[in-house]
Amino acid sequence: MIPVSKVALSEAEKTAVMRVLDSGLLAQGKEVEELERQFRGATSSPNAVAFSNGTSALHGALHCLGIKPGDEVITVPFTFIATPNSIRMCGAKPVFVDVGDDFLMNPALVEQAITSKTKAILPVHLYGQPCDMDALRSIAERHKLVIVEDAAQAIGAAYRKKPVGSLGDAAAFSLYATKNIMSGEGGMVTTPRADVADWCRRFRSHGQRNRYEYSELGYNYRMTDMQAAIGVEQIKRLAEITEARQTNARALLKGLAGIKGILLPSVHEGRTHVFHQFTIRVTPDFHLSRDALQQKLLEQGIGTGVYYPQALHLSPAFRELGYHTGDFPVSERLSREVLSLPCHPHLTSAEIQTIIEAFHHV
Ligand SMILES: *Cc1c(COP(=O)(O)O)cnc(C)c1O
Fold it and tell me: Ligand 1 atom closest to Cα of 82?
């Protein structure tokens, strides 16, 4: 069986976790500090604040940029539910705009979604490719909005040579077990703003300024040193992990080219895609449905994933926003057509050949 993703731990992670256990200091401490230092380096960002997961990192980034009840935040319905949920955690309202054929927020649709209540734009670098940040930044500047990057899937990606995490007012990363680099569960906020970083440090720890001195509401959103120790070993291998994914993606692009009805992912000029997912589209021109193709591949020992099977404006969880079928046609179509193939760093060239042959066989 070739799994769609695979957690790979080396001896280095095991040694690092054992070192933390032996130290007896398991909660947030030196390892978290080291992971934050590594993130500052990897994202060219002056500040990095570790969180318990990517969702709490998104919540922290939005809250500490001042998003509050009554505000509106523009985001996309074609993403993981944590993206719009983090907006609701601030008491604010998610306002959706559709994505383009590239799976990313369509900047041409953003301006018409802005109201007097809009405070922020939350674009998602889905599957590991950065959004059109020049277009989004010029809209944000014109309307005095902040930008929070949902960079959960995009550590190591870049837009015009600038790393993801340094492209907005803040960014949130996830270190969940299947992300490009991981710590089991974990998250990180990067921001150019020292005031936002300071607030994030308090926010993740009950609003604590000094020991037992609390300045405002906060949560327990801390990462442990055991998790951070894993993350540190992972991020040291970021370049290697990213290159392996990109090499696998190139091989898949070559081997799967020219199949009628299958659309392959493309990379925009000036952007570095880190292929958190290698996602194809199974269009009506293909002789099988997406789900039938997924089943056939499974029968041949190839695991695949559908990220995501429902555009979130149609989820019962967002019923109160009052959206309907047809409101975001591209997202709705993509939710029926997308299929992610294995692209993880531990894939062998023989396994990639197996995937390619399975397609030609089907
Ligand atoms: C994984 C993910 C998150 C949330 O991260 P967790 O660490 O699982 O809380 C947010 N947004 C996107 C796009 C993600 O893929």
Answer: 10
